Amino acid sequence: MTKSKSENLPRFGSLDELVKFFDTHDLGEYWTEMPEAHFEVDIKRKTHLFAIETGLANKLTEIAKNRETSSATLINAWLKEKIREQT
Prior knowledge:
This protein is mainly α. It has 3 helices and no strands.
């Protein structure tokens, strides 16, 4: 049987030290020493995607950029405004 070439994972005093270490080392060499992670994900927000015309998307992006905001923020603000007008 081939001996693993992995070394023992060193101890780190901070998350920054760990990150710097793996910037120059292969995580695969230490995979068997990694602790198993257990966590729950509770997604409370959904994203809905809608198709829009290319020209409209380009204009929205341009307006959003001029307002120094994202296209998604601009679209949501405009839709909320339009919905308030309708109700």
